[in-house]
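Render Amidase in 3D.
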Amino acid sequence: MTELWQLSAAQTATAIGLKQASASEVARAALARLDAVNPALNAVVDCNPEDVLVQAAAIDARLAAGGTVRPLEGVPVTIKINVDQKGYATSNGLRSKADLIATSNNPVVEGFLAAGAVLLGRTNTPAFSARYFTDNQLFGPTKNPRDPALTPGGSSGGAAAATAAGIGCIGHGNDIGGSVRYPAYACGIHGLRPGLGRVATFNETGPDRSIGFQLMSVQGPLARTVHDVRLAFGAMARRDIRDPWYFEAPEPADTPRLAAFCAHPEGIDTAPEVEAALRDAAARLRDAGWTVVELDAIPPLKEASRIMHKLWVADAPERILAAAEAEGDPGAIFSMKGAIDWVGPVSLTEFGDTLTRRASLVRDWARFFEDWPVLLLPPSSCLPFAVDADLKNGFEWLTERQYFMAGPPAIGMPAMTVSTGLSGRAPVGVQILAGRMREDLCLAAGEAIAARGTPPAPIDPLTV
């Protein structure tokens, strides 16, 4: 018999709408699942069960009074600890912000609430949300439910681990260099990085961030089914005037079923298991009736990755590194110092030139997507990293394996990771890119690929 916590978001909302289950019953099942598996994962680090049950009871009362069923009615959703949720700390994994209590909701939170979701708990992130690994001095490490020897990814590692283990149907995350897509890959689920401006965001607890962050940081959902990712994106992509980058995209006019894939752009080497998963995804897409062509070259990824890192740290390197050193978190210091050293000193003129070059790359990629509406790439050049592999192997070692993650944010276009299976215990999958405002193409291709495999089901965490 399927337990309530095992249902997808779509199944949960349907069951509640048909009165096959109440929101309160779903919430109690979600809390019980959290209690059962979270101690082994440390994925959810802030949860108020009484608040969860109050939210669910309000939904039941609303439906009993004749309210219409919303897309995420009663669906348990987790929120990452680096966005504002009223009454909870926006700590971002920092001891210095452990008591920074939000008095208003980030637009993402408002979107989930408006769609009928129940906010189940808040998920872990590395300090400053600055690593492909999830650990901090405030809450400690999050474990990958598929294999505790592997990273759950970062920075939305808590969201991915929780969702993979059935703690909620949808996890909220954010992505500046892979922080939605890489945890989804590492934990064997799906994650969408929307294009710049498609999902509004604003934290009243903190000042506006530097221009590099503003150009690349986006909010996105993680889920066990691509359809649930679609539902979550619909809830998140709603108007909010607090975000100056937000815009409402027109409805897509068509869905061209034409895609390309590239296994080794710019000579980037990929592990055999990674390339096999990419070719498998291309074959699945062909089986679904798409035309899929292999390309030898695409617009620059390595340069885009360097631009991403330069925009991340170069406009305030001393301030960024000082904040990491004040927190005393080894992973944050490693990531920030590593990025600063890798980029090297950047003058004001060079910083301006970098922004100018970014515009040229955006143009090159926009032209590419006019010819090839969908592009399949590896999520990473290797299988998910071992825990703390960055600290053991060095920053340059890491960046050379993550061009596929770090390059796309510099161009501001949508990208999605779709899980396609396992290689031993390690998840494998594919990354899907599309042109500006075409998240729908990422989702359509993702649904076609995922439909020809076994959907990721909630799993019990492996502890050895």
